[in-house]
């Protein structure tokens, strides 16, 4: 079997890329030929198909009116992606295409090319792009699904972005692909959480959606439960991730506990200035990240947006760590409250501080929760099970037994 895998980034950029590369490696180890399609970038991992990648696109660096207009058009429809994918398909003739994050840099216009060549298409829903033009389902920091997968002009009327130009562009993008029915041409959608199934079914038939939770390679994580007594945050430093709520909670703690923050983002500089007692250690990956998680007392995921199936949660649980997460989105589907960690009211720093205090004061409790989390990962979130189910979806699409 030949599987084309498309994602706009071919380097680790976030949780969706971790899912992408894990699946890619799993398929290759199973003897499946994987054909890459992505965007050129100096940070990219090696690919034998890099000559077919689209040129690097930075939507924040355009200067001049004509350049801005050209960039805006490519934001909605990438003629380069269409042409390069055509050549790649003619040469490789894959059986299945598995799309991850393709909007903006690759654009959903490539779906039409795949269908023209008779390639069965699977798309993993990593965020809310199907129903929300900005993909976060947020408006001024509050959960918002008012566009509901169709009324994308409401991005303008409800002023959900920092500028009118952003709102117009996102609305135009959403309405264009709705009119072209690009997403509707996908054969199967993969939703990693029940909430994604429910929200996505507002736009696409539920029978086209498969619930397939993210998996994690357990061999790469030790379940040893001892720790060095610090709380840990892993993720983007941006408002919707609830990082400010965590920092406020840390100030309210009754117990003195170090807090380490791993990640980068738009709030990095301001937060470091405002919270000098917190250890901001930047972006971590690989062995460095595993060691950081392994030595933590517990991990906090304070998101104030709808998380999907958080890889940070899976990494923590695979490492035998208790997790404190906001009771929102897909997090309650991962964290069993009182069993593998605690859930708290989103945005409530006092509630979060109480949960953090409880775990730091009771080492036996957090170790018990860590062991329970590891067991949950082994039973429900292993990469082996995830990968085999994924291959079954491919085979069903190609009518293979």
Brief descriptors of the model:
single chain, 401 residues, alpha/beta, Rossmann fold, 2 domains, 6-stranded parallel sheet, 14 strands
CATH superfamily of the largest domain: Glycogen Phosphorylase B
- SS elements, strand count: 14
Biggest sheet: strands side by side, in what order?
2-1-3-4-7-8
Ends distance: 13 Å
Q: Which strand-content bin applies to the residues?
A: 5-15%
Q: What is the domain tally? A: 2
User: Ranges with pLDDT <50 over ≥5 residues?
Assistant: none
Named CATH topology of the largest domain: Rossmann fold
The SSE order reads: EHEHHEHEEEHHEHEEHEHEHEHEHEHHH
What structural class do you assign from the helix and strand content?
A: alpha/beta
CATH architecture group name of the largest domain:
3-Layer(aba) Sandwich
Reading off the top of the CATH hierarchy, the class of the largest domain is best stated as Alpha Beta
| Multimeric status of the protein | single chain
How big is the Rg?
21 Å
Share of helical residues: 40-55%
Biggest sheet details: 6 strands, parallel
The average pLDDT score comes to 93
How many helix segments?
15
* Dominant shape: globular
How would you describe this structure to a colleague?
The chain is an alpha/beta fold. It has two domains: 229 residues, Rossmann fold, CATH 3.40.50; 163 residues, Rossmann fold (3-Layer(aba) Sandwich), CATH 3.40.50.2000. Helix content is 40%, strand content 13%. The protein contains 15 helices and 14 strands. Strands 2-1-3-4-7-8 form a six-stranded parallel beta sheet, with helices on both faces. Strands 11-10-9-12-13-14 form a six-stranded parallel beta sheet, sandwiched between helices. It is globular, with a radius of gyration of 21 Å. The protein starts with a strand and ends with a helix.
């Amino acid at each position: 079997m030949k599987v084309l895998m498309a994602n706009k980034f071919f380097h680790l950029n976030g949780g969706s890329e971790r899912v992408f590369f894990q699946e890619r490696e799993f398929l290759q180890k199973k003897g499946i030929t994987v054909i890459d399609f992505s965007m050129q970038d100096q940070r990219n991992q090696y690919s034998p198909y890099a000559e077919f990648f689209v040129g690097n696109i930075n939507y924040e660096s355009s200067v001049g009116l004509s350049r801005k207009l050209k960039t805006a058009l490519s934001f909605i429809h990438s003629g380069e992606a269409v042409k390069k994918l055509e050549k790649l398909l003619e040469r490789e003739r894959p059986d299945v295409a598995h799309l991850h994050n393709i909007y903006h840099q690759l654009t959903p216009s490539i779906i039409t090319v795949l269908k023209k060549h008779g390639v069965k298409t699977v798309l993993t829903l990593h965020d809310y792009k199907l129903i929300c033009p900005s993909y976060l389902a947020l408006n001024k920091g509050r959960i918002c699904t008012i566009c509901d997968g169709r009324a994308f002009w409401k991005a303008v009327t409800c002023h959900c972005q920092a500028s009118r130009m952003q709102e117009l562009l996102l609305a135009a993008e959403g309405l264009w692909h709705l009119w072209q029915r690009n997403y509707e041409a996908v054969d199967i959608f993969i939703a990693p959480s029940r909430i994604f199934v429910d929200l996505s079914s507002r736009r696409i038939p539920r029978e086209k959606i498969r619930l397939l939770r993210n998996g994690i390679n357990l061999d790469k994580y030790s379940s040893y439960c001892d720790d060095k007594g610090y709380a840990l945050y892993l993720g983007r430093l941006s408002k919707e991730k609830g990082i400010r709520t965590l920092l406020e909670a840390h100030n309210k703690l009754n117990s003195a506990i170090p807090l380490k923050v791993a990640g980068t983002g738009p709030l990095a500089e301001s937060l470091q200035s405002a919270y000098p007692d917190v250890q901001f250690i930047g972006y971590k990956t690989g062995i460095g990240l595993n060691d950081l998680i392994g030595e933590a007392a517990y991990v906090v995921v304070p998101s104030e947006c709808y998380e999907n199936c958080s890889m940070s949660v899976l990494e923590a649980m695979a490492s035998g760590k208790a997790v404190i997460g906001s009771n929102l989105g897909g997090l309650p589907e991962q964290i069993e409250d009182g069993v593998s960690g605690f859930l708290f009211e989103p945005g409530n720093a006092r509630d979060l501080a109480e949960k953090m205090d409880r775990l730091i004061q009771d080492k036996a409790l957090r170790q018990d929760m860590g062991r329970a989390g590891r067991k949950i990962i082994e039973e429900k979130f292993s990469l082996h099970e995830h990968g085999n189910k994924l291959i079954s979806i491919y085979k069903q699409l190609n009518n293979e037994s």
